[in-house]
Model the fold of this input.
Amino acid sequence: MSLNLKTQTEYFTNPLYLESGRILEPYNITYETYGELNDDKSNVIVICHALTGSHHCAGTYEDENKAGWWDSFIGPNKTVDTNKYFVICSNVIGSCFGSTGPMSPQIPHHNPYRYKFPVITIKDMVKAQRILFDRLGIHSVYAIIGGSMGGMQALQFAALYPKFALKIIALATTHATQPWAIAFNKIAQEAILKDPDFKQGYYDSEVIKEQGLSGMAIGRMAGHISFLSSESMSQKFGREYKRTDGLYELFGKFQVESYLEYNGYNFTKWFDPLSYLYLIKAINIYDLSRGFDSLHDALKKVNTELHLISFRSDQLFKSCEMKELNDTLTKVGHKNHFYKEVQSDYGHDAFLVEFDIFENYVRDILK
Amino acid sequence: MSLNLKTQTEYFTNPLYLESGRILEPYNITYETYGELNDDKSNVIVICHALTGSHHCAGTYEDENKAGWWDSFIGPNKTVDTNKYFVICSNVIGSCFGSTGPMSPQIPHHNPYRYKFPVITIKDMVKAQRILFDRLGIHSVYAIIGGSMGGMQALQFAALYPKFALKIIALATTHATQPWAIAFNKIAQEAILKDPDFKQGYYDSEVIKEQGLSGMAIGRMAGHISFLSSESMSQKFGREYKRTDGLYELFGKFQVESYLEYNGYNFTKWFDPLSYLYLIKAINIYDLSRGFDSLHDALKKVNTELHLISFRSDQLFKSCEMKELNDTLTKVGHKNHFYKEVQSDYGHDAFLVEFDIFENYVRDILK
Done:
């Protein structure tokens, strides 16, 4: 069976009413689908991507070296089985892979929005996806799965549209972003803003793709620290020094420094700095209880079967945060929620790389 | 009784032979003393400072608003009682508070060394201090106490000069810097190097003191993340938003962001960026076992009574690192070592702020 990978973009001319009170109008959403929609449209699984992810979560295009970001997880006979399910993953608004974001042309003059782009929230991303699904004639889905910022969306779907999904699986995420996660994002924000090549938002995207943007690279390095754990860093790098460098050279490098540098600078070739600023903002202000008196109140309407999966060594969205959400769901009287802490040493990135530890668990949920 | 605070500088014309094989010549060391040296010189306590500390660890100068960095700990009738002990704290070489560092004039032309300054190690810092003490006629001491980079020095004293100190107390430190600590330092290094005002080391110190250096501020923000813990961040900041900012302003700030920003930029007014690069290098390459086949071998000569104090929530130098050192000392057959994990939520900074939890423990050691 084939993956049946399709990429499409839908255009919306009706305004999107944002949580901030502002509107986005017009806007478009780029999305990918895999597998086949069945006749009664009962086999839809929605995948939500993380901060720097995209709609391209599985399969490999002809001109690509690397498969989609969750390819080990999604495909024929894989955990999310595209022989059975019709899978949709859309690029969130505010991002830079086809959906409307800060570098999209503003109507009527067609110059990029840049700082004129409105602040987007996780709720706005979810609302826009729901409008996309309506356009596609899909008014309810079998499951929604997401990790990290994708997990925030999954939880927001549960709170905002209590009957939309039958099952929701949120991995490596939180119900409200905590100060240490905001602190890591602050490094990125400050480093981007102070980079002279960023030019207060008036940077040249082509130049950045070619030369990199050190401010965003530095921010991404801080991100990578938060994505790993002390255990995974010890295992990956230890105190290994780059073989070619001298120990007493001021800029000689440990392996961990090379790793951060390579990944930091490489990142700036494929991600837009304004999108980065807008998406970390969305993550920072994410709070499932906003608009309610408490998290307890926010969860009262939640009806969906809800699966919370945390990773023991996750430093960014700690297990205790998921545990708190789980306990609150219990207190609210929610009947169908399940919490699992995966015993991984890998840190936050575990949800992207350690499939073997949790894929059976997810497979059982989807059965 | 008074603190009897004195600041002095000693000049050395004999070369300092560095671990790298290079030499530093001439050099000077600025130091402070408190209390009175007794007749048989048996009441000396050496204090070793951390990365951005200085020789000024106690008391307040007339023109100062703030006391020395360990003032709650050192003084008449305090834990380190200056009525009883003669306390010395010297500024490490490579730093920027009077001892020779990268911005010191290079002989004979008297221009600053900048990148021509040799890489300094923790062992070099300790060796230079020993030479200072010799100059002062002090050939053994009662105790050496240090936290963080100061703890590294304390441990290095134990390994390098087995009979120099009767008691050594190392707090919130490690026997070898681990990759996560190196990773945080990498953010600082990269941000400083990429700051156009740094001018590849040819910056104008006066301009920086006035205007700040955003690269170093960003690096310091990363440092502050590593100095705190999730618990202390939750307690200090939670998800509090700056009262004056709107939640949907792209650059509106959470309290944690204001804290990082204020402390980051303020730091650049009083610390030199080249010293920062050299001192984080010294920390990164610190490894008590260098030159030996193993940590076990490095500890064989250690003779001093050794007290290891870690802080439960320290994310930078984790308790398990001190534990490992303690276990290796036991295996080596060292007789007089003691390990204590202080139950603090405060993270790495606990050694600077939570005196009340560990001062009695230290007081008992010094009795």
Notes: Residues 181-281 of chain B form a domain with the Rna Polymerase Sigma Factor; Chain: A fold (CATH 1.10.1740.110).
